[in-house]
């Protein structure tokens, strides 16, 4: 509640009563990075489109692991309806690594050499985000930026491995345990996050809560 009233104070800059409060907590200083705002699903603020088409979901069904089916109506229309309804985690920031990897494999967004391909991502956007060109452009830009970040990260890891051989061993062990590489999911998370930050005004949910969350994400770098 105090967050909400804080933001209201900011918006009410021109209201005389709050002038002092306003100057005291103007713009960036109003973001308290020690206090994360109440969690709200990010797609409620910015509906970043889901890139998994029904066809892809079918091709990757073995990795989708939907939540256990409800006890009633098994096999009936309820199940059919369910398959049209993406599980909430697909829309969130923690997608299943194997599902994402499968989708990126099938669409060749991540090539056989493991390298991301922006042209293939763009083609995927053409089929999934065709109703919003602005959103598609922002997502493509996000992909390019995230690909760059990923290659920087890879370079850092390579450097670390050359310095600390035991780190390489740890990584290899981890890879043995993990069914899929986290790379695809990390890339997708990054793309969703960058898109959220640059969400087109035409679809942005201009609510106090959403603005607070975006300010927090923009201003408070994770360490
Ligand atoms: C994706 O492709 C890579 C390389 O071809 C392969 O190693 C991996 O198992 C594939 N992942 C999925 C989930 O299909
Ligand atoms: C906008 O965000 C608020 C939360 O701040 C939420 O209650 C509301 O449902 C959202 N509106 C839409 C259209 O998603």
Automatic annotation (TrEMBL):
Residues 89-215 form the OBP47-like domain. GO terms for molecular function: odorant binding. Residues 1-26 form the signal peptide. The keyword Signal applies. Residues 68-87 are annotated as: Disordered. It is found in: Secreted. Coiled coil: none annotated. Belongs to the PBP/GOBP family. This is Odorant-binding protein. It comes from Zeugodacus cucurbitae. The gene is OBP49a.
